[in-house]
Amino acid sequence: MTTTTKSPLMPMAIIGGMFFIFGFVTWLNGPLITFVKLAFTVDDVSAFLVPMAFYMSYFFLSLPAAAILRRTGMKGGMALALLVMAVGAALFGQFVDLRIFPGALAALFVIGAGLSILQTASNPYISILGPIDSAAQRIAFMGICNKLAGALAPLVFAAVVMRGVDGLADQVAAAAPAAREALLSAFAHKVYLPYMAMAGLLAVLALAVWRSPLPEVTDKANADDTPSKSLFAHPNLWLGFICIFLYVGVEVMAGDAIGTYGHAFGLPLDQTKYFTTGTLAAMLVGYIVGLVLIPGFVSQARYLIVSAVLGVLFTVAAYLTKGYASVACVALLGFANAMMWPAIFPLGIKGLGRHTETGSAILVMGIAGGAIIPQLFAVLKAHYDFQLVFAALMVPCYLYIMLFGLFAARRNS
Fold first, then answer.
1. Could you read off the pLDDT of 340-352 as tens digits, one per residue?
2. 9-412 to CATH, choices 1.20.1250.20, 2.30.180.10, 3.30.460.10, 1.10.8.110
């Protein structure tokens, strides 16, 4: 590994700040599902286009992001990513204020495009900043920054935008057409100033990162473990891509879809708007436990197996219970999910050598699972029991993640 500084503390602090930023932006998608459903008067299937537009950007732009990073380097790429996110936030505020739903979705795609550059840069960077076998510990620290922001995001959004949403829904339902449009326009306008402020902050942060002392790293720290020059000689990468796809799907289901899940029991919107914070709080606890246990007491791969088993158990418990108890089991999936990304990502890129950047981009493409699996939930729950659909989607995902953990544990033994 080559860096311009001896201590990793400064780059870890900078990358931790980046994880906080994209955690805050990413975990706004949960409350945004409820928001757009009311502001644009759309059904659940259309409302779940919010995470789809956001997460599909990773699939389309991760490989281009790797090419961009080869030209700009780490610092320039991260600054560019923040600037793209600033543009997307400004566009989202404008389109929501005008109540143009396709424009708002396009703006979320732009925000996701910036985040795809940021993710493609930051995850391999933090993975090879130190020994690859302890990468999960460093990524767990990043995850704490990410999920702390994620836990705050729904609370801030609820206080600024969603206050009194149940009363507003009743007023909209009872109002005449002209009055209804006025109410909805006023409600939509609530996000304008917050997103304009976010755009300004992201632009300032882009300049700050550009001028920061962030060092560069090279892929020599992640030496190729095979004489082959082809990416296809690394099964851990391709199996890891599928694993990331399924993992992000279950993470978004537990974090973003939990409000819709709770509302399906008839729980009020004034309560369901906070449920994402519960999932993120459970994830924070999971990261802290992971920091303590990995790698001193258990390997990355074996902890991934344990996490997947917990995911199955909590999902089954959610299916067998009702109301707040079931919602609590879904929130506990945050604990099970917490250490999955920190384990899967370094296992997926291990030994890629000069292919590290491209392999990282391929893994980041798997984030598109956050678009597909929740959308399947929205579509299928219109025809089948929502708890059955939730369990039928989640359990197979966790079982595959467990199998990937077993594969990685055997490969590293």
1. 988 888 888 887 8
2. 1.20.1250.20
